[in-house]
């Protein structure tokens, strides 16, 4: 991860599929974005982000246990071919990558643009009625993600232009992945997925924290949180700032994560 954060600078020329465990080993709903130890500017580049939780479900646990036992019991047996052989799948992927470069059709582009405007209008109306900003704004970055998803769906069929079905499915996938994760508060603090008023509060907290604690000072993290909460800042914003500064290398945890040292 450190190499990735230091070295990656230009545009990505390939698809990236990544998986990571929570900082705490298991997702903790009470700690929101603290579960993720990733630079926000990198995390926001992923088009789809799924929060996968290990929740207890007797029926599902039984199914998984049977599947694992079956694999170990039948490990000596030859692998069963699926609907497509491995060799054919490799050829299919190679052909799609080299020969297929789908683009939005005029019709699907118009539909996606209309959906984008509707989402923005709906969000604005809701904010006006409730007198409160939505947690997650719909921005151009999210629109670009939906376009890429639609084009990838089209590419799987080896077709040159997207269809209405591709647009509908890309909107659904974005809704159940990144947007759902962000709405739950799990991605608070991530660039492009945080409400404007929250971004402003985070900036204010960071400015004050840097002014009050010079480089080289060590302070109890609990004390920092309590001091800012007394000034009517949210605890979530304060912890978001601390985590962001730790990821940047500006702060370091000491004494079993109870104390933070400012190093930059």
Which descriptors would you attach to this protein?
264 residues; globular
Proportion of strand residues: under 5%
Mean pLDDT: 80
Helix amount: 40-55%
Radius of gyration: 23 Å
**Treating each run of at least 4 consecutive H or I residues as one helix, how many helices?**
10
Strand arrangement within the widest β-sheet reads 1-3-2
Order of helices and strands: HHHHHHHHEHHEE
Query: Are there runs of 5+ residues with pLDDT below 50, and where?
Result: 1-8
Give an overview of the whole structure.
The chain has ten helices and three strands. It has helices spanning 2-7, 40-43, 58-73, 86-99, 106-130, 140-156, 164-183, 196-212, 221-230, 235-248; strands spanning 218-220, 251-254, 259-262. The chain has a three-stranded antiparallel sheet with strand order 1-3-2. Helix 9 (221-230) crosses helix 10. The longest helix is centred in the middle third of the chain and has 25 residues, at 106-130. The protein is globular and about 60 Å long.
